[in-house]
Design goal:
With 329 residues, the protein is an alpha/beta fold. The chain is built from eight helices and eleven strands.
Length: 329
């Protein structure tokens, strides 16, 4: 059994995978919210994935580290991926990569301003001078940041004028490439929106070949992270890492009849890697963990059923419009 430890409200990262693309995994995965982590002491074998580490408070990190150590000494057949204390979070990771000469850009605590906790969805403004940085820092109180940090701008457009964001997963001893997105804008968040045919071909080749796997594994090792997704770019032929997310969303959306791409290959790569973890297919769990897991999965099922209906209507309308009036270039 795989015990996926995360915050209760952030189990959605596996929702589409478990509910639609690989329902067979429902027998192998159990969500364990951090507020019920003590139940892991009742498990004799399996694999524990510590995720959502950037959302833990210092007190939670300390408590989870102690629990991890107890499990390690008392439950030798319970394998653990990531460590609540030893897995580096964004700030320490970027500092280490700069010090080791892997990244050419550094990070500072209070260039652009972002929160170390969670994901960024709005484009951070690039600050061009100490005056602009000072103004941004003075506005921190209105930004609701938990752990603000200043990051040097480390991306560079390719010869075609497009920036690229690469992502790859590590799951235990295995890794796979997830995407190569290209855009004229430096902040790339949307999955492939507006990519040209040539960029889509580049993306397909990247996923197929996983060309940076050998170079990325030592970075995961340095970070002490054995489950997560690394986001990076290539500048002058060298990997430049943005972050390693320990609770990444595997697939954002449930499938609809009008999808323009097939997400099943991504689901299979992730599911097949999970299946290779120690005791992944062992059914051993506990009634309490099972009950909580089913409650979380049931909530996600209702949420994603509504989401799927909305997506089907939206994409169906777009498909009808394109059929009647021609697709936009």
């Amino acid at each position: 059994m795989i015990f996926y430890v995360c915050h209760r409200l952030h189990a959605y990262t596996l929702a589409s995978l478990l509910l639609y693309f690989r329902t067979d995994l429902q027998g192998s995965v159990r969500f364990v919210p951090y507020d019920e982590r003590e139940h892991l002491l009742e498990i004799s074998r399996g694999t524990v994935l510590w995720t959502d580490l950037d959302r833990l408070s210092e007190a939670e990190i300390e408590a989870c580290s102690n629990l991890s150590q107890r499990m390690k000494s008392q439950q030798p057949d319970l394998f653990q991926l990531n460590h609540p204390r030893k897995s580096l979070q964004r700030f320490d990771l970027l500092r280490m990569l700069f010090a080791d000469g892997i990244n050419d850009f550094n990070v500072y605590r209070p260039v652009f301003l972002r929160d170390e906790t969670g994901a960024a969805y709005k484009v951070p403004p690039l600050l061009q001078s100490p005056v602009e940085l000072g103004q941004a820092l003075s506005d921190l109180g209105t930004m609701n940041f938990v752990r603000p940090m200043v990051v040097e701008f480390g991306a560079k457009a390719g010869a075609d004028g497009s920036y690229r964001k690469y992502s790859a997963y590590r799951i235990g001893a295995r890794s796979y490439a997830q995407h190569c997105f290209a855009s004229k804008e430096w902040f790339i968040k949307v999955q492939g929106g507006g990519m040209s045919r040539r960029h889509r071909v580049e993306h397909t080749a990247f996923v197929r070949d996983n060309p940076h796997a050998v170079e990325l594994m030592p970075i995961f090792e340095k970070a002490g992270i054995s489950y997560g997704r690394i986001d990076y770019t290539i500048v002058d032929g060298r990997i430049q890492v943005f972050e390693i997310n320990t609770n990444p969303t595997v697939l954002n959306d449930p499938p609809t009849p009008f999808d323009r791409y097939d997400s099943l290959p991504y689901a299979n790569m992730h599911a097949d890697a999970l299946a290779q973890l120690p005791y992944a297919n062992d059914p051993l769990s506990t009634p309490v963990i099972d009950e909580t897991h089913l409650q979380i999965l049931g909530r996600l099922k209702n949420k994603y059923r509504r989401r799927r209906m909305k997506l089907t209507v939206r994409k169906g309308f777009r498909s009808f419009r394109d059929a009647m009036f021609g697709a936009k270039p």
